Amino acid sequence: MFHELMRDKIKIIKKNGEEINNLNAYVSKNTIMLMDSDISIDSNDRIQRFMPNGEIENFKVLDAGFSNGMFNIPPHYNISIKKLDLPEIKITKKSKISISNKILNNRSIETSIKKINGNPYVDRQIKALINVIDNAELSFEEKKKDLRTVDEISKNLKSNNPCEEVIESLFNCLPHERSITSIRSFLIGCFKS
Predict the structure, then answer these.
(1) pLDDT for the residue 11
(2) pLDDT at position 4
(3) What is the distance between the alpha carbons of residues 9 and 49, in angstroms, rounded to a whole number?
(4) What is the CATH number of the domain that holds 20?
């Protein structure tokens, strides 16, 4: 009965880089139900959902939510997830990103750009961010993806039209560690000061 509900195809990417492919699951907004209880799922594993239109949705496991089952319900996972939007989106130099009204209302565009591009601490914070990710307990693939995200943050900050919303969205794709949160606060604060 429950297996009939499992119509989504997913892949689990473990922290060590191991991939578990071709799994059937039920995906909802904040949860993935998986009836295959023979596999191991841990917090911070990544899950990819393969959409019928060819697109791929990416999720981070917040809590595996394993249940031994009861009565007619077999053992299963009820996985709490967070959708990851931006790591798979490529932001190129050709992309046009408009500056938010918050920046436009802060005297002038030039003033806001100078506060970021002219700030000697921005480069130090980006280097510190790279160092945090290099030293984090992440798989090679996760580090590679997170370092690409940091590169996009750096490019956006150094562009002629840095965008606070893009920076915040990119930071949401990085691990939620205290040191990363501190760097995020500093860099977002550059838009407001």
Answers:
(1) 92
(2) 63
(3) 6
(4) 2.40.10
Residue in 91, 82, 88 with CA at minimum distance from that of residue 153: 91
Q: How far apart are CA 18 and CA 35, in angstroms?
A: 20
Q: What is the pLDDT of residue 193?
A: 52
Divide the 193 residues of the chain into consecutive groups of 10 and give the mean pLDDT of each group: 71 87 88 86 90 83 84 82 62 35 37 51 83 83 88 82 80 80 79 61
191's enclosing H/E stretch is helix 178-192
Task: Give the residue numbers spanning the domain of 164.
Answer: 101-192
- Using left for φ > 0, alpha for ψ between -120 and 50, and beta otherwise, residue 107 falls in left
